[in-house]
Structures are given as C-alpha cells and as structure tokens.
Design brief:
alpha/beta; Ubiquitin-like (UB roll); BCD1 alpha/beta domain-containing protein; BCD1_alpha/beta; BCD1
Amino acid sequence: MHRRVDNFVRTGFNLDLQPNSAQSPSTLPKLPTFKKVLINACNSKCRNVDLKFFPESFERSKLNKTRINKKTKIMFWTVEFLFNKDNVKKMLHDLNETISLKELLNYKENSKKLEKINRKPNKEDDNYCSSNIFVHLVHQEIENFDFYLKKEGGKADALTYFKLDINETLKFNLTGKLIHEFPTITILEKNNPNDTLPTNAFVIDLERINAEIN
C-alpha cells in the first residue's frame, strides 16, 4: 500500500485537507485515544460507519463533540443542520444514536425530552436546545421537511445524497456512510420549488429502501 494511503487509513486523517500539503505523512500528529475509540466504535458491525478526522487546527474538528458512553456503548453525535433555502447552518450536540430523527428533531413535542435523554444542557449555549436551533420549523410539522445526507468520497463529479428516514434512528441513517468528523444534514421544505437539491444530484431514498426490505 502506498505510504500516503496507508497513513490515511492508519491515522484516520484526511490528508488532502492538510493546511500544509507539503507536510510529510510521517510528521503528522497521531490521533488522541478518544478519537481512536470513536473510530473503532464506528467500524463495528453494528454501525459500519467510516469515521475520519481532520487535524485539530481545523474548525470542523474544534466543533466536534461526538462521544461514546463507555457503559452503554451508545454514541452521542454532533450533527450540523443546513437549512438549504436560507443557507443557514445550525448545530446540535449529544444526539443519541438510538433515537429516531423524528423524535430528536420534533420541536413541539420533544424539546423537553431532548434535555432528559441527553446530557444536562448548558443554558448558556443557545445551540444546545432544539427550541433554539429549529426556530425555522416552528408551527410546521416535521413531516413537511425532507432530510438529506450528502455522500462523501467517490468521484468528484458524482453528486449523491441519501434521503434519510426520519422514523428510523440516527444510527440507522448513518450506517454504511463515510463521515468527516460529524454528519451535515441538509433540510429541504417539501413541495417548495425554491428549496431543492442541485439538478444533477442523484438521490438514494433510505425510507423507500427500508420499506421494501421490510
């Protein structure tokens, strides 16, 4: 295996995004233990997620608070949400992988429940509580929106999105995916011609596939 590729696999770093492209792979910092634990957890058969990390100097790395509970073995993800039409990005931390997207994101029914199922919220952090983050969804039902995860890796000219199944867990929706630090989920309003994916995008509908399997 080529040294550069081998180092990518061994460390979990995306070398193509290093600030200094001339930097030798042998001089790259090693991953902290907690990141190795996360990679191993993601690589397990029950998840099958290919998790990669950027160098800690990268903003995306600094924002990532994904963790795993050592006793329950449950992962709690940082997730970035992109409101496509408004080009607004918001983040939630400590999202329990065993809970459905619908439960995690439903503003009216679950803002209090989120505080119970996740770690104790930091009241000074407006990005924590769904009631602050999803003001865009107030007075609208979650079913009026579609949620997409852009496929990472592959050919540069191939634009593929996974349409997520909001009735399934975060764990289910991330299975088999390549994730850099944490997932970014794009939110589109249904039946809105001004809120769509790029015209050349190919969509894999996880909800439809799941329904056909079951």
